[in-house]
Every structure is written in C-alpha cells, then in structure tokens.
Amino acid sequence: MKAGVRALGIAESYSDETSRLAGAVVRASRVVDGFVFGRCAVGGSDATDAVCGMVDRLGREDVRYLLAAGIAPAWFNVLDLPEIADRTDLPVVSVTFESSPGLEGAIREAFDDPETVRDRLSTYRAQPDRRAVSVNDETVYVRAVGLGDAEAADVVRAFTPEGGRPEPLRVARLAARARDAE
C-alpha cells in the first residue's frame, strides 16, 4: 500500500452516560493527519449516526478507509456497518481484538425491554460475519463492508506496524481517552 493512503480510525472512551468518540486520520506511513470528535449515548442507539456525522464534519476526500474499534461501542450501541459505508461512501472495517461467541447473549442480558433487544439484535445480525486475520503474530477479528475479506485483511496489516492494533485505532483510542479526561 502506498505510504500516503489514509484511513480514519474511530475509537471510544466512555464514562457514565456519554461516550466520547475520537477519529484519527493516519497515513499508511504512520503519520497522523487529522482528528475529529463526537459523542454517542451509553446504552443508546445513536453510534451509527455519530460516526457518520464525524465523517461529514471531517470533510476529508482523501480518506480511503474507515476503521472502527469494535461493533458495539458505548454499551451495545451497535454500529450498522453497511449503513455507515452507504452514508459515507467509504469501505468500513470493524476490528475487534478478542475471540468471542458473539454479542447476542450479552445484548439479551443487558436490556430488559423486548423492543430494545429486538432492535439491537436485528442491527447486530445484519452485520457481516467476523473473520480472523493474522497480524504480526497476533489475531484480530475483522468485519468488512465495501471491500472483500482479502483486501480488508491487507488494509488491517498495512496500517499495523507492530502488535495487533491498527495505528488509526490506536491513535483514536488515545485521543478519545485524553478527551474523556477533560
């Protein structure tokens, strides 16, 4: 991948009722090239809109990929990856860092309201399956919309200089935590 290719990584830090989202534009050469911030409700259903709003506010035509840290930030505020890809015109790659049986059971346990459970499960089930990707002797789990599995794996590897966390997500997580500490 060319050194100047840019990805927007989105990660969160939350406490209480609000999750602070941070977006970091990072080049494949590891140069940080911009930031954008947003919020979504902990336990809410506004994360997809928040991410799309961040991309709109950023206004960067040179960003080629959107990487999200996970699929359910802010206590199961489930991201709708196909909707994000459609609204932003960017390929979207969700990266998680642990193997799991999925979130269906956890969503059922977290919410008492049957309609809330139904809506979240519907969004969650509409997402692409996770695929294990080997990166620098570590394994991450990737869901991709707007690009094939092989290209998604190549993108994750190209933006991960060491360890298993892609640089746009690492920098975004640091920015979100710093912003949350205000």
TrEMBL record:
Protein name per the record: UPF0215 protein KTS37_11685
Family of this protein: Belongs to the UPF0215 family.
InterPro entries: Endo_dU
Superkingdom classification of source: Archaea
One Pfam family of this chain: Endo_dU
